[in-house]
Design goal:
With 336 residues, the protein is of the alpha+beta class. The longest helix has 26 residues. α1 packs parallel to α3. The chain is 21% helix and 28% strand. The protein has one domain: phage-related protein like fold (Alpha-Beta Complex), CATH 3.90.1690. This is Phage capsid family protein. Pfam families: Phage_capsid (PF05065).
Length: 336
């Protein structure tokens, strides 16, 4: 008779590969979402396969109609987008003694470190394109749409200027992403009477900027050399998560991190172990013009190499071809 795997009783020593138990996977992914600025703000989409296609429709309008008249029909434009998941891995050294824990207890011990690593890496890639498998970054979309302004000493003017880019496209930002190091600048921004502009009336910290909530980036995930704030209609930014979290216990590997003497850590020599955990998130920007950014003075962000949307041209027999839409095309749509 087959024996059911029980993570509460089986030790890591006897289960060196597999999937993190479902309840702990849910806890880790929840922590990743809490720690990631992108996942706090962007819109989640379900994923059942590594690459999902979405088609959007624009150009539909309404018309005044007299009684008995024929209602005109709009000619829509169909736009498509793809979101693709990529595998992310993290390796965390630990002691061999920890392999004597049950699978459940081991991941209770390691879940905070795993979640922090995933959230940090995802934000670095999705926000700034750092070491990224994704064809876009949020900052790269703002640069491609030419919606970037340089930081000044007055954060009110900075944020107002960044909002103006979206408003010029008949769009509204619904939140701001920023590092916590910006808090001191918000506190220092004052009106003509010397009163702080952004401080919450009931507290000493900044609750929002010009009515927009702030998604604070986790420590180490924000590149301060590239941007100070990113504003967006975050409904036009999507992310997905494919499957659960898989793991493998390593005991013989040499890690790419160095010890106190500057030498790579050899697990066998140190009688140590390491956990390799893998996670498969996806990310895409749906509309470049829905993003603007404030950058340090003198910085020119790198543009995404391709537009966020493609136009789908219908041919005979429903054959489809695609072509890039211009960066200035501000069509919006809803998911079909």
């Amino acid at each position: 008779m087959a024996v059911t795997f029980d993570p509460d009783n089986v030790t890591m020593q006897d289960a060196k590969t597999g999937e993190v138990p479902a309840n702990l996977t849910d806890e880790i992914i929840t922590s990743v979402k809490t720690g990631s600025a992108i996942m706090q703000l962007a819109k989640a989409i379900p994923m059942t396969k590594p690459k999902e296609r979405f088609t959007f429709m624009t150009g539909v309008g309404a018309y005044w109609v007299e009684e008995g008249q024929k209602i005109q029909t709009s000619k829509p434009t169909f736009l498509e987008a793809w979101i693709e998941a990529h595998k992310m891995g993290v390796i965390i050294p630990t002691t061999k003694e920890n392999l004597n824990y049950t699978v459940t207890n081991f991941f209770e011990l390691m879940k905070a470190e795993i979640a922090e690593s995933f959230a940090k890496k995802f934000d670095q890639s999705a926000l700034f394109g750092t070491d990224s498998p994704f064809p876009q970054s949020v900052l790269g979309s703002a640069a491609l749409a030419e919606q970037v302004t340089s930081e000044t000493k007055n954060k009110y003017d900075d944020v107002s200027g960044a909002l103006a880019f979206l408003e010029g496209q008949d769009l509204d930002a619904n939140a701001i992403a920023a590092p916590r190091s910006q808090k001191v600048k918000y506190r220092a921004t004052k009106d003509g009477n010397g009163n702080p502009i952004f401080n919450d009336a009931h507290g000493s910290s900044t609750a929002d900027l010009l009515g927009l909530p702030i998604g604070w980036a986790s420590r180490g995930s924000w590149d301060k050399t590239k941007a100070t704030e990113i504003l967006a209609d975050w409904d036009k930014v999507r992310y997905g998560i494919l499957g659960g979290i898989k793991y493998e216990i390593l005991t013989e590997a040499t890690l790419s991190i160095n010890d106190e003497d500057g030498h790579p850590i050899n697990l066998a020599e140190r009688d140590m172990a390491a956990i390799k955990a893998t996670f498969t998130p996806a990310f895409m920007v749906f509309q470049d013009e829905a993003v603007s950014a404030i950058v340090p003075s003198g910085v020119t962000p790198e543009k995404n190499k391709q537009n966020a949307r493609q136009k789908v041209n219908k041919k005979n027999n429903d054959e489809e071809t695609t072509s890039n839409t211009p960066a200035g095309d501000s069509g919006t749509g809803t998911t079909k």
